[in-house]
Amino acid sequence: MSCDEKRRGSEDKTKQKRALGPLTPPPAPLIHPTKPTSKTQNSHTRAEEAAARLTAAGFTRLSERDAWALVPGGRYFFTRAASTLVAFAVGGAWREGGGVHMVGAHTDSPCLKLKPSSKSVKSGYAMVGVEPYGGGLWTTWFDRDLTVAGRVLLRRGGGGGGGGGPAAAAATSGPAPPPPLEHRLVALPRPILRIPMLAIHLQREYSETGFKPNRQQHLAPILATAAALAVSGGGKKEGGAASAAAPPSALAPSDRHHPALLAAIGAHLGVPASDIVDFDLNVCDTQPGAVCGLEGEFIASGRLDNLAMSFCATQALVDAFGGDAGAAALAAEPAVKAVALFDHEEVGSSSAQGAGGPVMRDSLFRLARCLAGPDAEGAAIRTLQASFLVSADMAHALHPNYADKHEPDHRPSFGGGLVIKHNANQRYGTDGLSAALFREVGAGRGIPSQEFCVRSDLACGSTIGPILASGLGVRTVDVGAPQLAMHSIREMCGVADVGHALAHLTAFFEDFSGLVEGVDVDALPRAAGLPVIDDPPCEACK
Ligand SMILES: [Zn+2]
Questions:
Q1: What letter does residue 477 receive in the DSSP assignment?
Q2: How far apart (Å, rounded) are the C-alpha atoms in residues 477 and 441?
Q3: What span, in angstroms and rounded, lies between the C-alpha atoms of 295 and 121?
Q4: pLDDT attached to residue 237
Q5: How much is the pLDDT for 49?
Q6: Are 146 and 286 within 8 A, CB to CB?
Q7: In this structure, what is the dihedral angle of CA atoms 371, 376, 379, 381, given to the nearest 10 degrees?
Q8: CA dist 172 to 51, 157, 176, 177, 179, Å?
Q9: Which domains are seen in the chain, by residue range?
Q10: Cα-to-centroid distance, 371 and ligand 1 (Å)
Q11: How far is the CA of 16 from the centre of ligand 1 (A)?
Q12: Is there a contact between 302 and 491 (Cβ–Cβ < 8 Å)?
């Protein structure tokens, strides 16, 4: 056994001891043994679930369309496009130029989204047209019990647009205005969709070439047989003969989607299908998350990337500064403590509500202006320069069957705590100082952390960390709990690491102000008696 192997062996034992420590019970919104995870099926439902938790903890909902009147000690949140959420608790002792200590995560996950016209019939089957969103492991979507979830736009009593009845029409000279638009979040609990695998007998090349489905041709889920819809009448548009006789319109949802699907959504929401104007729906698994493994140390669930970090970030803010006890703790805080949960990370973040858009910059500039006043010179920039971002996104644990895919000296393991991610080419926002500060804030409470960098011969993933760091100029560390099967329909992480992550992020919110006070990397004190650059002058310069 080489020295290196011995060292690794003893490190492994230490990690095993950590993993075998008391397991934190899995938080209920992340995993529930009996209920489907309907609150977390997509970015809209996730943002709303976080909003409900913040509201219950005493945070006030703001609108970006209104003027803000923020005060020290106040706790607020807002959503943009109903799928990105920003929450912040203003320290009672905040002073002009004070920083914002924030955790950023993302609400979206790879999935199949329903196309604008999803209705198709192939070989006697009613199919649903879908478009892949993000880089999913699409082979894992086959042979699962699937359903739909997302946001539905309604015009109640509007019959899909316009109306108001004869009385209303008679009372006005022109056509009556349509009823106002409403939106509802929906997650059908019943498995209504399925993408069956092709039998091995019909793809004899499977064992040599693997299963390679075509994303256009082979990913459309089956909704029903056309024969069954004919018997049930589910293929007909709501409204009977008059509606069926109406000319097809590109705008009518019942012409673009299977009426049976619209009827199922309407029935679940308790409205007629004709009220549905449009929707943003994605396909998702109906199987609830589970605690698994002989010792109950793993969590199996869809969308752990980045449901787990979104949950831990929000819950850490609530644990630190929610409720009456949190309000008292916030009174003595000199910084703003914030959480930002972004949509569209899986497709590059370039959108109105993505991390590449202006939402974080808008928030921080408004916040600084509100608190410091419009005349304070450089208030927003000073606040940004005193700020710190923890970009929290799941990390790759060492896979025992593919250990060679990992850098030999950077092998994150279950039970080892949050992984600090490094990349020399700035695919992560971490540098030596941000890593040291984040590591220390955990170590101060005995919370472990571990390090990751990708093999030099493999491409490195990325996160919202570098996007926000370059957009805001804020010091950033990239971290995440270790997991396996990232972007599978059913991923896997460690129970203990969810506990470590929640504890570490809570420590970040509660302890970071004390740790970072006075740390200015451009003016760090030099070591006493030593030059800044440890390099003897050359002969020519003497
Ligand atoms: Zn992610």
A1: E
A2: 12
A3: 47
A4: 61
A5: 85
A6: yes
A7: 160
A8: 41, 19, 7, 10, 15
A9: 37-109+302-408+427-516 (3.40.630.10), 111-168+176-199+208-285 (2.30.250.10)
A10: 33
A11: 26
A12: yes
The secondary element (H helix, E strand) that includes residue 7 is helix 3-19
Distance 147 CA to ligand 1 centre (A): 22
E strand or H helix at 131: strand 125-133
In this structure, what token pair is assigned to residue 15? 């990690």
Number of neighbours of residue 77 by Cβ within 10 angstroms: 26
Determine the pLDDT at residue 176.
78
Token reading at 136:
């999913």
Q: State the distance from the centre of ligand 1 to the C-alpha of 347, rounded, in angstroms.
A: 11
- Using CA atoms, how far apart are residues 441 and 12, in angstroms rounded to an integer? 23
Spacing, Cα 157 to ligand 1 middle (Å): 40
CA–CA distance, 502 with 319 (Å, rounded to integer): 9
| Amino acid letter, 191 | P
Quote the ligand 1 centre to 190 CA distance (angstroms).
Answer: 27
How many A from CA of 341 to the centre of ligand 1? 11
What is the model's pLDDT at position 309? Answer: 94
pLDDT in tens, 202-252: 988 888 888 889 999 999 999 999 999 988 877 666 544 444 444 445 568
Please identify every stretch of the chain with a pLDDT value under 70, giving residue numbers as ranges: 1-40, 158-173, 235-251, 518, 521, 524-527, 530-538, 541-542
Ligand 1 center–CA 310 separation, angstroms: 10
Half-sphere exposure of 393 (CA within 13 A, CB side): 32
Q: How far is the CA of 92 from the centre of ligand 1 (A)?
A: 33
E-strand stretches of 134-221? 146-155, 181-187
- Expressed in angstroms and rounded, the spacing between residue 394 Cα and the centre of ligand 1 is 6
Helix (H, G, I), strand (E, B) or coil at 220: coil
- What is the whole-number distance in angstroms between the Cα of residue 185 and the centre of ligand 1? 23
Using DSSP's 3-state secondary structure scheme, residue 301 falls into: strand
- Mapped onto helix, strand or coil, the DSSP state of residue 43 is helix
Q: In Å, what is the CA distance from 296 to each residue of 24, 304, 495, 525?
A: 11, 17, 8, 48
Interval between CA 491 and ligand 1 midpoint (Å): 12
Distance 269 CA to ligand 1 centre (A): 31
CA of 452 to the centre of ligand 1 (A): 15
Cα 329 to middle of ligand 1, angstroms:
31
pLDDT of residue 244: 44
Q: In DSSP terms, which residues pair with 452 in a beta bridge?
A: 421
Task: Give me 186's structure tokens.
Answer: 């929906």
Separation of CA 69 and ligand 1 centre (Å): 34
Q: How far does residue 134's CA lie from ligand 1's centre (Å)?
A: 11
DSSP 322-379: -HHHHHHHHHT-SSEEEEEEES-GGGTS-STTSTTSSHHHHHHHHHHHHHH-TTSTTH
Residue 397 CA to ligand 1 center (angstroms) comes to 14
pLDDT score of 241: 40
Q: Residue 336 is encoded by which pair of tokens?
A: 């703003």
Distance CA 371, CA 438 (A): 27
| Interatomic CA distance for residues 48 and 27, integer angstroms | 17
